[in-house]
Design a protein that fits this description.
Strand content: 5-15%
Number of helices: 4
Strand order of the largest sheet: 1-2-3
Helix content: 55-70%
Order of helices and strands: HEEEHHH
Radius of gyration: 28 Å
Distance between the termini: 8 Å
């Protein structure tokens, strides 16, 4: 194979790379649409949890009129379990998920607890579906897929550009008689 023979293959390679870039762009768009669905689920489940926490607060206000809801850690971003209700700002815990006061609230407001549990489960499932890193334990992490697909697409675009540049450079060599 000489330079002319190799150069003759480049248009096909460039076309194949362009097709791959197009397909990857379509896949990234489809994944982005799925990501938006899961982001909406996370948002709705957070809103649901906040509404339930308000009902828990109302329940405790009869005995603790100054009680407040305190969220911390990853509440609303990575989980819906990092919350507690305090008897007053900076005060003692009167309700904490699976801790202080939980048995009481389960008995007093079972439907609200069931709804909160459902919201937590849906939030956790959706968060995992979005954020699971690609690996041997699963390949469904949408955010990681988008990131890696985008990186791959950028690499292929760079390769395509190099082939396009090679067409010009190698044509110059061939035109000067360097076709070995």
């Amino acid at each position: 194979m000489n330079l002319s023979d190799m150069l003759a293959t480049f248009p096909t390679q460039i076309e194949q790379l362009e097709n791959t870039v197009t397909q990857m762009g379509e896949q990234i768009s489809a994944l982005t649409e799925k990501k938006e669905v899961f982001d909406n689920i996370l948002s709705k489940m957070k809103d649901t949890a906040e509404d339930i926490l308000d009902s828990f607060k109302e329940y405790f206000e009869t005995e603790n009129p100054d009680c407040v809801i305190e969220t911390f850690g990853g509440f609303g971003t990575t989980n819906l379990t990092d919350f507690r209700i305090l008897d007053e700002p900076g005060g003692s815990v009167i309700l904490e998920y699976l801790g202080e006061g939980w048995d009481e609230i389960v008995t007093a407001l079972p439907e609200a607890v069931d709804t909160l549990t459902m919201a937590m489960e849906q939030f956790d499932f959706s968060f995992d579906f979005l954020n699971k890193p690609l690996g041997l334990e699963g390949t469904y992490g949408i955010n990681d897929m988008i990131s890696k697909m985008t990186q791959g697409k950028n690499i292929i675009e760079a390769n395509k550009s190099k082939f396009e540049e090679a067409v010009v450079k190698f044509t110059e060599l061939i035109d000067k008689g360097y076709d070995w």
